[in-house]
Amino acid sequence: MQDINDVTSNVVAEAIRIHRELGPGLLESVYEAVLAATLARRGYQVKRQVAVNIEYDGLQIEGAFRVDLLIEGTLILEIKAVEQLTKVHAKQLLTYLRLMKQPVGLLLNFSGLTMKEGIRRLVNDYRPGA
Length: 130
Known about the structure:
The protein contains three helices and five strands; from the N terminus they run ααβββαββ. It has 130 residues and is of the alpha+beta class.
């Protein structure tokens, strides 16, 4: 299994390349589909719209939410195409990380002038080398 930092770095590079070529202004679903396809072409295991169950008060809630992309079974990607990222977007991704017990997630907003300003890396008790 590839190191999570290497995977994250490659995903960011691919997102930047996509943003440069397609630019801002498309729907989130388009960026999601293109990013999923390009990452799969690079040999990554990519799952789209992963349904996630929640257990609450003894109840099992099937498909309570969906993760945009799950890369290599560990990296969660939340794709946005909004004017500006807000705290609620980060909280959404942190909740996904916590509930899925995953270490790292990327919040990728494709609507900015540059992709660099639309990238946020969030961690859930991640410890390199642990």
